[in-house]
Amino acid sequence: MRTPTETHPVPEHVAAALDELTRALPAGRLLTDPDVLSSYRTDRAPDLRAGTPAAVVRVRSTGEVQQVMRAATRHRVPVVPRGAGAGLHGGSNAVDDGIVLSMEAMTSILDVDPADRLCEVEPGIMNLALKEELAVDGLWYAPDPASMAFCSIGGNVATNAGGLCCLKYGVTRDWVAGLEVVLADGRVIETGSRTIKSVAGYDLTSLIVGSEGTLGVVTRARLRIRPLPPPASTLVAFFGDLGDAGRAVVEICEGEPPALLEIMDASTIRAVEEWQRMDLDTDAAALLLMRSDVAVDRSGHVAAMEEICARHGATFVARTDDPDEGEAFLQARRLALPAVERHGVALLEDVGVPRSQVPALLASTGRIAEHRGTEIYSYGHAGDGNMHPTLRWDHDDADGKARAMQAFDDILEAALALGGTVTGEHGVGLLKEQWLPREIGADAMDVQQAIKDALDPAGILNPGKMALRLR
Amino acid sequence: MRTPTETHPVPEHVAAALDELTRALPAGRLLTDPDVLSSYRTDRAPDLRAGTPAAVVRVRSTGEVQQVMRAATRHRVPVVPRGAGAGLHGGSNAVDDGIVLSMEAMTSILDVDPADRLCEVEPGIMNLALKEELAVDGLWYAPDPASMAFCSIGGNVATNAGGLCCLKYGVTRDWVAGLEVVLADGRVIETGSRTIKSVAGYDLTSLIVGSEGTLGVVTRARLRIRPLPPPASTLVAFFGDLGDAGRAVVEICEGEPPALLEIMDASTIRAVEEWQRMDLDTDAAALLLMRSDVAVDRSGHVAAMEEICARHGATFVARTDDPDEGEAFLQARRLALPAVERHGVALLEDVGVPRSQVPALLASTGRIAEHRGTEIYSYGHAGDGNMHPTLRWDHDDADGKARAMQAFDDILEAALALGGTVTGEHGVGLLKEQWLPREIGADAMDVQQAIKDALDPAGILNPGKMALRLR
């Protein structure tokens, strides 16, 4: 891969495409400044391959996306669609001499329809910005990745992003009613329906959601919305033993689903507390964060969770019905990754296991950390079995990095052995390219490849991602 | 199309495939008796084209399905997968000289895992049989097509079947965690995961669900289950005006979702009452059936619905917390189709509109009945905007049939004009083949065709369905 500082002539066919686009697009859309190109090379995942694009195109309309894709098809130029660059798996890393198709300027809310509980947005709008706009009218779009302040709806759609509340409310796919998609050759299709149910043809919406920009470019999303849930009660419980916390998770989820159920282990608690002074118990082995937003008889739901935590040996349990106080606890959880990142390179896992296997995964992760002599910060969406054990090494510690990478593989192995998945919500991108075939098998990979080839015969859309072959 | 009584030599390549299968499969699997062949020609939709198969193969294992598909691929013989034949859109109608691949003997429940809320079943098991087995352990698989006593899980998966409770609990796709699928060439893949969330690759599960046997043969389904909901309260309300009932539907759905919300119009009420004597008010213009299974403070939810019905002019409102009594009211709704069928040929629509447009659809349907001079029985899942206006004509009334068919088209036109869909839960099959392209457009049809060709390059899987081209 080239670095942006190497001087390198843009190949002729790419230059031809850029010339065409320069003429066709309004001024300022097509950027080739080396500093700009450099800043669009990677997402937030450390240490994955990334090329240097020939251009970044910051589109402002579906028509402009069509022009880019037509030119790219004509000249066989790779196109990497990109949202806010908040990905954690290299899914939007650039490729050499390709075009980065940035959707960040397309941020409009096109329609809000409270009667049919739908809204239509452009893909560049930030998840949190949409939530805030909707909240003004008492409406809600549920999916809430921890990165919601700086991740876009388009990126959420591309990765089928999860979050904290998806335990009760589902993931991005459950909230997408339909999409406008520009195909590789520049044609536009609309998927889905305005109705609650439709079986009119193959479910192209679900296919595009989670396809990481390899099948088409999402230029508009019709999202389901609903009234804001009632104010939530938040429950925090500290445990002296990580296994106890894991077992409490399993039992809590046997009842009425909490609106979220997060876990942080000792090292994560300490990393956050050290940074932010939130009065977390740094002697605890685990912290569980739970929420209930069941309006009627809310206390009963929270009391049941309290009782389970106590019975599983919680050393401290506290409940708050104050939204700000509850939000502060959640903030502790959202700070987990930046807290670890302060001390070196942080590489997040994103494994999922069947919920009953959460205690086993926590135990495995501990053994792996010890065996590999590496630091692992375990936290995540315990309630749906989706954990983000995070590996840390010093910036200049090659040996530490090597040990961390071994631990990374060990955790994936452990998750698969427990009947799990190698990615619960971040996606395959580049980070899991060796692992996707191991999880789904060669024949299912063939099917994925066949679909990719059918929708993108020239192989220009985000090439080399999701363990798909280059053409 | 041939009729089964015509003598017709089986074409040579088909005979070769059947010879192979006769040798390879256990005795009794491959059936060629003309009466048997005749009984597998159609599903429950009246008057659609149906061929006469060369053989019916009643498989008993995934391995046997693989053998059928390998032989079919080798000899280019069309294969129509078939569940219980309960479809309403011709999706499993046979094709001449093809194989009907009957899954009806594969009825096992392979696993029930209450901890992770999953079960695994073979596709031939009836929906209701599965429900009854699970209920013994207090567990529940939600989707409940009106035909649940005689429709199979495999058929439900093939059509992404809905039902009454999907207003609150979602459709079949929401309850399928993964599938075992035999591909056109006989290879087997597993889709999905045992975890709650996974983004490992394209969502093949959602693609196969609703693909009507055109992309692969489902040989095992991993379904989500949950604890049985608490006992429900059932509310019935009669209205003197159909529009009032429609407006009540819209307002009820603005609050906490009911567990079901069904509507029957005057002619449907009368058809059911005439047949079964259930003390329904035959002077009413509409009947709404509602259910709440919110356990805590259940009365509040039901009372809110009662109040809305009263405010919209309901002439009679009654509530029962007695499960048997509640079930009797539901039975009235489930009898709608057979009640109409007693008096001639009944052709169900399956249109969906955005919920806010339910009153408009009801009004349009009334105008269409009048304009075309035909009988339309309107009933359906009003709460999710999925209506089944049913056209009736006398068996020997060619003119009545012609008028009904015009009304059929008018209703589809009206649904599309209201932002709706031509099929909410029954599927495209043959019945909607002219309408699918009108709803989704030529470019989205091209995408569907490309996916079909990618997964079934020889075009042998349920050819000619879902508006896909024959190869």
Automatic annotation (TrEMBL), chains A, B:
SUPFAM superfamilies: FAD-binding/transporter-associated domain-like, FAD-linked oxidases, C-terminal domain. Its cofactor is FAD. InterPro entries: FAD-bd_oxidored_4_C (IPR004113), FAD-bd_PCMH (IPR016166), FAD-bd_PCMH-like_sf (IPR036318), FAD-bd_PCMH_sub2 (IPR016169), FAD-linked_Oxase-like_C (IPR016164), FAD-linked_OxidoTrans_Type4 (IPR051914), Oxid_FAD_bind_N (IPR006094), Vanillyl_alc_oxidase_C-sub2 (IPR016171). Residues 49-228 form the FAD-binding PCMH-type domain. GO terms for molecular function: FAD binding; oxidoreductase activity. Keywords: FAD, Flavoprotein, Oxidoreductase. The keyword Hydrolase does not apply. It holds the Pfam family FAD-oxidase_C. Belongs to the FAD-binding oxidoreductase/transferase type 4 family. This is Glycolate dehydrogenase, subunit GlcD.
